[in-house]
Amino acid sequence: MDNEIYYLKNEQHFFDEFEFKNGYIIKNAKVDYGVVGTPKYDEEGNIINAILFCHNFMEDYSSISNVSGFREEINVIKEDYFIISITSLGFPQSCSPSTSGLNKDFPNYGIEDLVNFQRQLLSEKFPNIKKLKGIIGHSMGGFTALGFSIYYPEYMESVVLLDSSFKSQGYKYVFSNLANRIIDQCSEYSQNMYDESISRMLILISQIHYLMSFSSDYLNELSNDEIDMSIERFADDILFLDIYDIKFCNDFIISFNLESELDKIKCKLLIISFNSTNYYIPKFDAIPLHESVEGSQYLSFNLIRDSDNKNELIKVIDEIRKFLESV
Predict the structure, then answer these.
(1) How far is CA 147 from CA 161, 233, 250, in A?
(2) Residues 6+ apart with CB under 8 A from 296
(3) Domain-wise residue ranges, the chain
(4) Euclidean distance between the first and the last CA atom of the chain, given in angstroms as a whole number
(5) What is the pLDDT of residues 23-82, one digit of tens each?
(6) Fewest CB atoms within 10 A around its CB: which of 111, 205, 296, 319?
(7) Please, what is the Cα angle at 278 between 69 and 222, to 5 degrees?
(8) pLDDT < 50 positions in the chain
């Protein structure tokens, strides 16, 4: 990868095997990841300033460069922290339905599988990280970050959730459910065949997602011509994704729910919500999580997509920095 674009050094690793919770084993599983920053060591040679970044839906390890000002922020904090960003299980550039060649025969995965996939990479490539300084999870990546704090509560000192949740409900459930119903109706999907009908189906799915990705305030400020252009850009992006990867990711989102396990969280938790979409709504996602986890901190920011958010982004970054410094 171009370091001037991503600020991350691209690395690739292969597991001899990765075992899913359901017992399915994939051999020679590929993992893409990136690192940036300077590791700091204690007297025993252990890295003490590692930060794990967990990315959003259908993105990859490099997407840290595009999240809420982190492109510039990486240059600021890389002297203080050693940042590791791993492409998630189930997503392109790591072990996924499309890249494994299994397509529709790929095993269904749950939150423990997503966590263990990243945990295995950390243990195999960075055995001198005994405890993470923190985990930052953006959107769907927040699911993994929260899962880490539940299944490995002693493995990190802190977690930062950016625009995320603790369970699938409302629009999150509706989108994944409707998208998979559309996919299930496509005979080419079940036959492992790609043709124009797959592309048309992807565009339809993107249009459903579009309805849930922006606040009503933002959409009503646009002209109809601007909305048309915005929808077209949205559809173009999804054509680069793989239908099998989307289907299995939707299956995961439909079943995702950590509500009954939130009492296992022991680390410091910072929850940041953005009042900019219909997908993660503070009233139903961030605030109930904050109220369920004793000692957690909650902040809300008014970020409107595709507008000038510079001042708000600076506030977000400053709050994250202060939180990490306090740990």
Answers:
(1) 11, 33, 18
(2) 265, 268, 269, 270, 271, 289, 290
(3) 3-168+257-326, 171-251
(4) 32
(5) 999 999 999 999 988 899 999 999 999 999 999 887 899 887 665 455 555 555 667 899
(6) 319
(7) 75
(8) 1-6, 68, 307-308
Q: What is the DSSP letter of 293?
A: S
C-alpha to C-alpha distance for 295 and 297, rounded to whole angstroms: 7
Contact 179, 153 (CB under 8 A): no
Closest to 203 (Cα-Cα) out of 245, 246, 236: 236
Please give the single-letter amino acid code of residue 314: I
Q: Report DSSP letters for 153-213, one per residue.
A: TTSBSEEEEES--SB--HHHHHHHHHHHHHHHT-HHHHTT--SHHHHHHHHHHHHHHHHHH
Residue 98, CA distances (Å) to 67, 88, 89, 101, 106 in order: 25, 13, 12, 5, 9
